[in-house]
Every structure is written in C-alpha cells, then in structure tokens.
Amino acid sequence: MGLGQRLVRAGRGVVGRGGRESASVGAALLGVLLLAGAAFGSGISRTAVSVSDGLTWLGDDQRGEVVQVNPSSGKPQTRLQISGGDAQLEIAQDDGTLIVLDRRTGQITVIDLSTLLASGRRQAPPGAASKVLIAQGRVFVVDRTAGTIHNADPVTLVDIGSPWSAGQPLADVVVDDRGLVWAVDHGGNLHALEWSDDEERFVEKSSRPVPGAGPRTALVPHGQGVTLLGLEGGVVLQDGTGQSLSVMTVQLEGDVLAALTSPAGLVPAAVPDSGVVVLVSGSQVIRVDTAGLGCAKPGRPAVFRDKVYVPCRGAGKVVVLDGSGKRSGDDVMTAGTGDPELVFDDGKLFINTPGASQGVIVDADGTTRSVTIRSPELAVTDPDRQPIPSVPSPPPPRPEEVPTGTRGNNPTGVTTTAVPPPATTTGSVPAVDGQPGKPTGVSVSLKSRDASTLVVTVSWGAVASATGYTVTASGGFTGGSLGAQASGTSTDLSIPCSGSTFCASGRLDVSVTAAGGGATTVSWSVPPAGTTPPPVTTTTTPPPVVTTTTTPPPVVTTTTEPPPVVTTTTTPPPPSLPTAGAAVITTITGGAASYTKTVNMAPPADWASHNGTCEVVNTTYGWSTPIACSATSTTIEADIGVNRIVVRAYAAGGGSSVDSASKSTNVRDPELCGTKPCQIPRAAPESPAAPMGAGGLGLIATAALLRIGRRRSDASDGPEEGEFR
C-alpha cells in the first residue's frame, strides 16, 4: 500500500470515529497531509504509485537461496535458504508476499516478508509445466501439462474453490494488470478467465480459436489485454488491449521466450534456436537477427524505458535495442559463467547471473552500476525456524491511592483507592491473563505407511485449564494442509501419498494449539522408505514383595489385617463427536466487498445427526454463528483479507469439539477498490515531470476530511455513534 493510500485510509478511520477525538486527531492528520504534500512535491496520488520497499529479491540457484538486495547501497540484506543446491528458482513477489518455485523439485514456498517465515508450501510437478502468477492479491498456480489453473490461498497455498480445466494441455498462461487470466491451449484456443468470489470458480469471459497457434505459442500480458505470439504458425495478435492487431509473419521453429510483461506498443520475444528476436512495435512485426550482433542464442528479453534488453546465453552480456530493432547503446557485460537473467522491480532493471557474486543495476537514465549479490559474511536465514514468541506488554503500574480532586468525575472529598489484583498461581505451563499457555514437548513419530497413506502420531504435554487442542499440519502433500481436534495429549494424522513425493522425502510442519491459549510448532522429516516404526514398549510392574513377620514368644497375640478394599474405576467412554476434518462446507458466497458471507453446507450423516451443538466459526477473527448441526445454510461476518471458515461441533456434555474441513473467502477493501476492479500499482517507467495539479491533492483530501468531520459535529444531537440516519 502506497503512502497516499495509507494516509487517506487513516483519515477515513479518524472521521469514522466521530466526537472530540476525531477533531483532535483530524487536526493532527491535517499536519501530516500538508507535510506529505511538501515533502513529496509530486503529490499524494503519484506517491501512492511510486513508493515501495525499495528492495528486490534475486535467486541464487547454485546455493538454493533467494537474496534480498538494496539497490541504494548495492549490497545484500537477507539470505533465505529455500531449497538444496543446484536449484532452478523462479521468484514472484507482490505486496508483502514472496513466492518461490523450484522447478527442479516442483516445490512452491510462500514467505511472509513481515517475519521471513514460510507460511505455506505446495507440491507441483517438477520441470517446465508449473507456473505461479500473482495479481490483485490472488495467487494462481498453473499446471500446463494437466491443463489446469488453481486459485490458491496467498498464505497457505491451499486451493480456494474449484480449478479451471482446459481439457487439454496449455501452451501458456499469464495475467494482466486488471487480474484477468489469459490462457492458450495446445489446440490454439485463447481463453480469458475471471475469478468469481461469489461462485468460487473461474468464469470464462471469452474464448476464440486462433489459426496458427499451437503448443509453442507464448503470451505477453499488458496493463489490460494480451499479445499472442504463435510464431510456429506465423501469427501475432492482440486481444483486450483496446486496439485491433492481427498479422501474419515469418514462421519460426523452436521455443519462444517472450517478455514476462511489456507495454502493448512494444512486445519482444526471443527464439534461441533461430538466433532471432521478434519485436511487435506498434502495428509492425520486426525480425532482428541477433547473431549478427554477437548474440547467437538470445534469452528472454525485457522492455525498460522504451528499450529492449536481450540477454545473450553463453556470451556474458546483454544487448540493448530500440523499438525499430537497432542497437541503442553499448552492450552490458555481466560477471560469472552462467546465463544472465533480467528482473524488473521498483523502477529498475536488474541483471542477475545465477551463481555470480556481482550483478548489474540499470537505472532509469540507462546508466549501469554494480550490485553485490553473494556475500559469505551475511548469515543465511532458515524460513522454517521457530518464530520468536511475542511477549505481552506489562500492565501500567497502578497507583496505591489517587489524591482527592485529581479526577474530574470524583466528588469533592472522595478518595479512590486502587486495590492490587490477587496473585495468580500457575502450573508448569504458564498462563497469561487466566488463559492457557502453549503445549510443551511436541513430538512427531511415524506410526505406519503404505503406498497411499502415511500415518504419524503427534504427542504433547498437557496444558493446565485447556479444554482441548487443535493440531494442524502442512507440507508438500496433496492438499497442502490438514488438521484435527483432540481432547487428550496425542492424535494421529493420515497424510495422502498420491500426487506428490512427500511420503518419500517430505517435511511436515506441525502446530499444536491449546484451546484459548498458545501454539507450539515443530518440523519433522519423513524417514527413508523401509524405516520401521518404533516398537510398542510394554512395561510390566512386578508384584509387591510380601513380608511376613513372626512375633517371638512370650507374646501370643495374633493380629489379622483385613483384606484391602479393591476399588474398580470404570472410565466413561469419550463423548460422541462427528468425524473431524469432514467436508461440511460446500461453498461460501457473497459480494467481493461484502462483510457478510453466506456459508452453504451439506453435512455428512454423522454431522447432521450429531446430538451436541454446532456453530459456524470464522477462525481468522474468532466470530461465530450458532446453527443446527443439520443446517444447510447460514451467514457469518468476515473482514478484509482472507477469512478461514469452519463448522465446529461440540460434545453433548460440552468440553471437547471437532472442526470440519475449512474453506477460505476473501473480502476486498471497498475503500481502495470502490466499484472498480482493484489495481495493485506496479512500478513502471514514468516521466520525471509531475502534473501541475498533483501537488495540491493533499489539500483537497484535507478539505474533504474536514467537511465530513463538520457533518459529524452538526449531527451530534442526532443518532449516537455507530447509528445511521
């Protein structure tokens, strides 16, 4: 979120409170807006587009790392170990999220940039079939061989709703800046898809056959629309760009490496096997023989500041062309022996050679400078490390006595004495404010495995006053995550083996959360095949030794002790509960910006006939709606972002409970989107000159805020805060 957006949103929050606090805070906001307008002379609207974190992530395939570099200092700041050595990493980043695909293993990892911890993983097919796209806060996972597109949760990578299938392999899939997904299949059909939050599926907006398109066709997305390059059939066309372009050109054999994104007026693509770069410049298609420029095998090009940068495989350089295909400057030489890759981020072009210690930054004016990528002195961060527990702030000190007259609401002569709270005694697991602590001694062990399922046992220490526990596990298996509810201190998890290599060499992240308390997370690696689960140990307690004492004469008194009373305690059976993790929720519907969602359900027989109570729970915010266990529909409150929804069943006697399988739903911020599709600003080349009116936007925003505040003040005698007229 840009600075301007943050200020405007903060202003809305202040005005929404009403009362005297709004007036004082609004005055402070006035100062902030004026200072922002002065400090950023180009105006708030432009600042909202151009302000970013200023940092870029680059891949180091040889080490299996991603490195965060600071262009200003030219030095690396963070190293994350994502995979093993000799990886094939592809990086996607947007709005606080970093997603890395390792094509060698097919594993997709999402990193929360606020903590640098892995928040989710997903297994995809190894090789070139997989692709990850980010747009409008959504993550799309593509399997080109299977011909499918999935909408994945941006935090956990678990599927949301139903995937789309082309019914045949896909040649390429991209997403434009509006969030519209474009896909071309092997049969040459071009599809435009839009995700529907209400229906939780992709809606096909258009579909058209393109004669000449086929398995090697490539797509290039733009601000809106797409360019199709079917060079094996000699066809080039644009769709959804607002301009009509459909031309035939010379047929070229071999794979097409198209730019990842570009303006619609200048679209480059390389054909390495032919030593050619094709430029779609305006309405013309220009063929450039790069072999004559000392670039026999061109790599994937990029457009930067109306120039085309072409990396040369095996030559250690990047060739610079203009829109007509002619040289537009000196070649940019690169370090290392690998093939240079182009990364466009934050208004700069990065030239990264995987494995090299140095890279190159191309600034907006075309000048180049060196940037350090590899630094042995910089420690490597493990994204699977244990998170640092948050320590609650201590309460403010309480005065023993408040002098008379210090509080405006106290009558004269009345003294208020604060009584200190009683001491709280805790057990071995600490509690905070009367809430349970977090489990200790969490362990994971292999129980059994076969070709289809791997079963593990999760155990932990009891937490005082906890009424139950939630166990969740995530990893590179099909589905990505699963969970269970337990009332004791252990449970079994069954993990599917089909569709992934998880059961051979995967890693499982397990979290155990005490009800109303904290969570403990551990990681466990699947042992090699053939490993025998630990044997069950039976401990036999020897019978007590009976000691007979004979009293010597002359005492002849014999005392016979009565036999001990044998007490038999019968443990009552556990309370009846339906199956945990069952698929109860079918769909979640509601407008994209709606804060009330409709949860549609089809409870299985054991859920529908459960003799306890049930409720629908928004686990993200802790909101719930009581329902009959056989209910098929209800509503639940949601808030901005991803909301995780479950159906929770409680035992008839209370205490223990189980959750159904979860489904997620999104709420878009209407303050940022309004009635139009949300736009996530992308750093892009821009003119250094700002519009004359942009600098006064801060004053206009301030006037709007003060006007709303005055209306609030005028309505002070009307409805109370929170009511509507």
Measured as a percent range, the helix fraction is: 10-25%
Beta-strand content bin: 35-45%
Please summarize the sheet with the most strands: 5 strands, antiparallel
Average pLDDT over all residues: 78
CATH architecture of the domain at 585-668: Sandwich
Overall CATH class of the domain at 585-668 = Mainly Beta
Structural class: mainly beta
Give me the Rg, rounded.
32 Å
CATH topology of the domain at 585-668: Immunoglobulin-like
Task: State the total count of DSSP E strands.
Answer: 49
Number of helices: 7
Poorly predicted sequence stretches spanning 5 or more consecutive residues: 1-52, 399-429, 536-541, 673-695, 709-725
- What is the CA–CA distance across the termini? 32 Å
In one word, what is the shape? Answer: elongated
Biased composition (Pro residues): 530-577
Protein name: Fibronectin type-III domain-containing protein
Region (Disordered): 374-444, 523-578
Biased composition (Low complexity): 411-432
What does this entry look like structurally?
- It is built from 7 helices and 49 strands.
- With 725 residues, it is mainly β.
- Among the domains are: 3-43 and 690-716, no CATH class; 446-525, Immunoglobulin-like (Sandwich); 585-668, Immunoglobulin-like, CATH 2.60.40.
- The strands form 13 sheets. Strands 44, 45, 47, 48 and 49 form a 5-stranded antiparallel sheet that branches. A 4-stranded mixed sheet has the order 1-2-3-32, with no helix packed on it.
- The two termini are 32 Å apart.
- 34% of the residues are buried.
- Mean pLDDT is 78; it is low at 1-52, 399-429, 536-541, 673-695 and 709-725.
